[in-house]
Amino acid sequence: MQGTVYKSTGSWYTVKDEDGVFQNCRIKGKFRLQGIRSTNPVAVGDRVRFSLETIGDETVGNIEEIEPRKNYIVRKSVNLSKQTHIIAANIDQVFLLVTLENPRTYPAFIDRFLATAEAYAIPCVLLFNKIDVTGDAMEAEVDRMYRLYSDIGYTCLRISARTGERVEEVRQLMEGKTSLFAGHSGVGKSTLVNTIEPGLELRTSEISEQHRQGQHTTTFAEMYDLSFGAQIIDTPGIKGFGLVDMEPGEIGDYFPEFFELKAQCKFNNCLHLDEPSCAIKDAVGEGRIPQSRYRSYVQMVTGEEDTYRQDPFQET
Ligand SMILES: Nc1nc2c(ncn2[C@@H]2O[C@H](COP(=O)(O)OP(=O)(O)OP(=O)(O)O)[C@@H](O)[C@H]2O)c(=O)[nH]1
Ligand SMILES: [Zn+2]
């Protein structure tokens, strides 16, 4: 039988089979997949093959095979430094909720998130939320960011999770797909999910990293079916993705507008920092690539962690 993993609790997996029936499954034997050293071989979103076995008056499924993953997101294991925990697999898209006030989402955070999504090969949609409250200055800034990210090629929407404005468009984008919602605490993830599907209670609330590590709890993702033919993966305690290890030389490839130009740099291993005849720096100088994007890129390449809370739009 074939099915999709909706939930995992460590050793047991809830798998929805082709007839829409949820089966309680476990793993038979050892799995080693795609060279990933992970603490969990099977993750939410995985498509698996399994066989049913009746033990006493109980029917359990034995997962025998995992189909190749389209993508997956990971988190470094807290306990075993070299191992990773696969949070979810086969994600069709991630919606990043952005607000410029309460809370403020900085471009550097957005850019890091987008680059990570590119590295994971997960399409990202930007949702500028709370448009019902923005004043004139805010509206202008949202417009500017909306244009900036649309120009790069990202789908952007201005929405209000509270009033429901343009939420129908979010729903349309979700149809037939498996989505994930991300963004800072307070941007409106729970509110949006509730507007999209009233009654569905997700655990999107962010648990502080410290708290989570202190407890040594493993948080598991869970997938939900929505009434209009869509799936949501709920990842408790994770506001974004886990971090991907990126080599400095590949980061530019995750900035689509950089990637497009890099063949025109003089050196084919150009990091677009101090090298001469760099097409990226030229484009930044001529305003074809936004300053903020370049600054985010430099922060990532030079490994200036945690500087993303500064506002790269602010001139110093
Ligand atoms: N005015 C306005 N307020 C909103 C909107 N969306 C959410 N809020 C409010 O913003 C606050 C935070 O919303 P939540 O949905 O809890 O945010 P969250 O992203 O789920 O936050 P965490 O659970 O901490 O990750 C709540 O008071 C919401 O009512 C909106 O579109 N407009
Ligand atoms: Zn260059």
From TrEMBL:
Main location group: cytoplasm
Pfam families: RsgA_GTPase (PF03193), RsgA_N (PF16745)
InterPro entries noted in UniProt: G_CP_dom, NA-bd_OB-fold, P-loop_NTPase, Ribosome_biogen_GTPase_RsgA, RsgA_GTPase_dom, RsgA_N
GO (cellular component) term, any one: cytoplasm
GO biological process: ribosomal small subunit biogenesis
Highest taxon of source: Bacteria
Localization in the cell: Cytoplasm
Chain positions recorded as GTP binding sites: 129-132, 183-191
Native species: Robiginitalea biformata (strain ATCC BAA-864 / DSM 15991 / KCTC 12146 / HTCC2501)
Residue span(s) of domain CP-type G: 80-241
Subunit structure: Monomer. Associates with 30S ribosomal subunit, binds 16S rRNA.
GO molecular function: GTP binding; GTPase activity; metal ion binding; rRNA binding
Keywords for the protein's UniProt record, in alphabetical order: Cytoplasm, GTP-binding, Hydrolase, Metal-binding, Nucleotide-binding, Ribosome biogenesis, RNA-binding, rRNA-binding, Zinc
Domain EngC GTPase residues, every copy: 89-239
Keyword rRNA processing included in the entry's annotation: no
Lineage start: Bacteria, Pseudomonadati, Bacteroidota, Flavobacteriia, Flavobacteriales
Binding-site residues for Zn(2+), renumbered to this chain: 265, 270, 272, 278
Function: One of several proteins that assist in the late maturation steps of the functional core of the 30S ribosomal subunit. Helps release RbfA from mature subunits. May play a role in the assembly of ribosomal proteins into the subunit. Circularly permuted GTPase that catalyzes slow GTP hydrolysis, GTPase activity is stimulated by the 30S ribosomal subunit.
Protein name as catalogued: Small ribosomal subunit biogenesis GTPase RsgA
Necessary cofactors: Zn(2+)
Cofactor binding: number and manner: Binds 1 zinc ion per subunit.
EC number(s) from the headed UniProt entry: 3.6.1.-
